[in-house]
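subagent[fold] <- orchestrator: predict structure for attached chain, return tokens only, no commentary.
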Amino acid sequence: MSRPDEPAPRREKGRRSLTTYLVVVGLVILMPALTFAGFLIWQFTTVSRDAAERRVVAAAAALVQDLDRRIDETATTLRILSVSPELSRRDVRAFYDHVRAALRQTGVRIALLDPDLKPIFDTRFPFGTAQDPVGDPGAMRRAIETKRIAVSN
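subagent[fold] -> orchestrator:
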């Protein structure tokens, strides 16, 4: 045992201390564990990202199906209304009442336009109310020319 007034024993040149050996052994033991933990974190991140991507794609596909279904329903409604007796008699007021009654619970609105795309009525407003032009004129002209339904934003 050394006394407080005695100098610390000197190590031989080239020999390492016990602390150095313990640090090296600790690193040798920890490095594989840290590497494995890093790999697990990377795997978890990859799996989580892939799962999130699948959920987003599924949600987008469901939205597209819902939108397609709603467009088909609206197209069917328009086809049914297009053969309305009130419309063939050119009784615009009776046609307006028929359309409002048919769409009462749907949240869908329909505007009837003249060939110059001026609104005749819009089911959001009382009959006879003056309205601004509606929708995309290009899509409406295409629908008139092709006699097909045109969808626009």
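orchestrator: received. Logging for downstream: The chain is about 60% helix and 5% strand. The mean pLDDT is 86.
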